[in-house]
Amino acid sequence: MPVGLFRVCLLVITAIVNHPLFFPKENGTVPENTEEIIQKMKEREESLRLEQLRLEQEIADQEATQKALEKAAVVVEESKEEKVRWDMWTALSMVIFLLIELWRQDFQEGNWQDIGGEEDDMAVLGKAFKGVAFPDKAVLASFYEKRILGTTGDMARMREMVEGFADDLLEALRSVCNRDADMEVEDCMGVGSMYENWRVRKPFVCDLIVPFAPPEPYCFRCQTWCSGDSFPPDEQGYGTIKVCRADEDATGCICDKTKLGEDMLCLLHSQVSSARPSSEMEDLLCFKNTQYLDADQVMKWFQIAVTKAWNRISHKYEFDLSFSLLDSPGALKIKFKSGKSIAFNLTPVVQYENSDVYFISHFPRSSLAADIPSSTHWFLTFAVYERRFIQLVSKTLPANACHVSCLQILSFLHGKQCSLTGPSGLTNYHLKTVLLHLLQARPSQDWAPEKLEARLQDMLKFLEKCLHEKKLYHFFIGNGKVPAELSFPIIFQRAEPLNLFRPFVLRRDIYRKMVDTFHEMLRNMSALINEYTVHIPLAHTNGIRKE
After folding, report:
1. Where do the domains of the chain lie, and which CATH numbers do they carry?
2. Under DSSP, is residue 418 helix (H, G, I), strand (E, B) or coil?
3. Hey, CA dihedral for 155, 352, 332, 236, is it positive or negative?
4. Which residue, 96, 163, 383, 545, shows the most beta carbons closer than 10 Å to its own?
């Protein structure tokens, strides 16, 4: 109770003390400045309102910027997702395309020679044959007997004579050469149509290749387009030949592959050895300042060597020997006093490793190597294997098989047409390649002599398809079905197929001329054959008939 009274008294005292009447008079000025204070408060309120508006505008701008960034991020994310989807479709399309391409190549490698064996495929072809009268069996047999068969004996006698003289000439060449400095020449080998017994057009020309090797202690190291190093597409089918010392590392020193500074020396090779390519290498028929064998230098050396060899043995013969073509080192011609002449080619080649594939400096009378990239690039010839393959297959064919007859007739027709309309890009080598493909594709019994007409049609239709597609693949390169008996190098079997018609893809004028020549040959075929055939009643001649 006393505590409560004390609290009441304290409250009363406090109220009395704080009553306004107890404050001094000077405090009475506050009501007089009220309007000024209100004005300042209004100004302050206005400034705060403006500041609030500014802050609200900044916040709005920040929100707009944030929304724009979020929108841009969304667009970027969507574009990324779209790009990912597009990349997925692109990758999927590329995978599908590669699978199709791989399947096509596998199918091509497995069946590229099977075109002649399918009647359905052959039915699609032959558009150029419409309206063309094709000679029948009787006309073809008569033509072959009257025009072609009688030349075989002349070919055999000429081969024997040329080979004997070439052996004597090469023996004399070895005697005039310096064994310590000049190239070493080996025995010659016969290749081509004369030695495969299908050449029909005169003048007969024997093709002989002569392998040569460098003197000791040097050796040739050959490199082909399919040996692993990158070669441009226009250099496929070519290779290079490097002249090295036998004890030199096959890979060579890095100083041969990079340009060292003037103040840098190779620790493995002295200044004497570094100067070797510019002097000693040129004596070894290399291109200037390199170690690569130069085909032009080889041509000059071979012509000089052959001339010296002939001067040594010319007294033994009653005929003259001369070079028939200036751009061919071994294009020789024998001239008898009676006025007759015999032409043959003696061409220097380099053996590829231990095989019968050879690097050849040039192709006589051929456009196969017309556009050689440089004189250090050598074309590869498989002529020895081609001859062996024909001999091997001939053993499995029926007696008097018609395979050689087909090639002879087609070669004759093509030669006659070129004499009328001028030469074209199509060569006898292309015709032989067609035959090689069909020999591998067709069973042995299909080459019986009575099937000459059908097989000749197959060759023409195969060639027509190749011309249409601009694709005629080399028989050996990329062909995994080469008989094992030939011991053919596996590196060429695993290589990409080489298209012999590739040079004509960009040269449309030559391609057009080649196609026109082929069509003209088809139209003139009956006339060309009948010109050299005894008269046979017209009833025996009919159009193309399927076998």
Report:
1. 118-149+396-534 (1.10.1410.40), 151-247+282-381 (3.30.460.90)
2. helix
3. positive
4. 383
